[in-house]
# Entry
Amino acid sequence: MPDRTTRPCSPGAIVQDMTDRMRALVLRLHASICQETPDLQRLEEQVIASLTDLGSALLVSLCQLVVPCGPPATSPCACGRPAPFQRLRPASCRTLLGPITFQRPYYHCPTCHHGFAPLAQQLGFCAGSRSAAFDEVLALLGATQDSFADAAVVLERLTLLQVAPNTMRAATEQLGAVLAEVEQAHLTALQADQFPAVAPPAPAGPLCVSLDGVQAHLTPEGWKELCVGAVYQVRACRPRLAHWADVVQAEAISYVAELGSQREAFGWQLYAEALRRGAATAELVVVGDGAHWLWELAALHFPQATQILDWFHATEYVWKAATTIWGETHPDRSRWAEQQLQALWDGRVTEVLAELQHHQRTGDAVRAAWTSFTNQQARMNYPAYRARGFPIGSGTIESGCKQLVRARLKQAGMIWQADGARQVVKVRAWLKRGRWAEAMAHRPRRQRAYQRRVPGREAPMVGQAETAQPERVPVSPEVLAAVRTELAAGRTTHPWKRAWSKRQQRQEAETRTATSGVMSSA
# Structure
């Protein structure tokens, strides 16, 4: 294994070192080929592994170039006092090219007892941890693969790096937690009327909003709902041969997602995303099914929007009612359903309501359709919506529920902690909305604070106020003597002191017998 510790610290020395390494690499591969002619796949694997080692050595050398040849005698501490230079201290970090170790100046403040390495802050890494690029790849694979175990396998095949599935989980959930904090900060600013006043230009057509819920298995709650929202634009598409097909197609889709128990926050998140997309000056359209919470959020955050009941949601009610009235196999079932759907497509909702009223005694499905259409009648003017180029179907949000939740959180046997599910969905939402680079920019820099304990005093953490330590209650000598006697007796009778083999047990029995015989003869 090549040495990945400190390398030469001058450009000329780095060039010479890399040249020597490349020459040794070629000679080693040539000798390997001469001994046994491998196939192309084996050659590829050997070259990738060798180039990874070579790149790791180069990375160490480049990091070492940043280290000053003569470190400053002092460096400003977070407490405002100068911290004297201690020594060149080695730091290790896991990167996309494997683990690296190099020396960097280490300082320690005698005032607050805080140890730090300015170079670590400059390079943006934390000793003993992972690089930002490595963490990004872990989070990306952890959020997009079917499971964290599968993500670890894909990483190993692509980079020859081995990580545990829990490492994948930690990197993904840490990024999700950061993105959740960013969203919360935006909501706080929005609710305080401190949202950025610079609005993006309004889209050319209507700005559409769709929202829905999807179930996921959480522990210990059981199956719970996650809310998913989509903000998108539409463009006209070629008419389809199927009856009652949408005439517009969604594009430029962005998503938001939140736990169903936080619907209020979800509504604000969807509102903030719509504002980012130009909702302040655009014509708004909200498409959804018949859920009451959906229209409550729409009325609260988008009161001027045109509300549309999903066409396919309405067709489901019609077909269930037709089955209840005529049965599964009756030929009039399809004829009756087609007539009612044609009436809805043409905007004759009152005729459909009258027909459902006529068959209301037939069963619950008919009454449910009549109740739904009565409540949603104002959202069912489909001819007018088509004429204005509005979408009438919720296929966009159904696709969003599948991409954000079902494809990752509802694999066979998956049970999630609520926080873990929320964080993974957040990462997927930022990725699907095309804001991955922005998500990476929101990650805080990792820092490590070294605290030295001073006799008689507990050093506070940096930025933390020093608190008074509670006084110790003195213990009398009699109590101390009794405690020490009890501890000494416990050491001889502790279970770990017992004989663990038959030979030892026989020896102890013989010793006890001999001792008791001597005592009885005396």
Remarks:
- The first helix runs from residue 11 to 35.
- The chain has a mean pLDDT of 85.
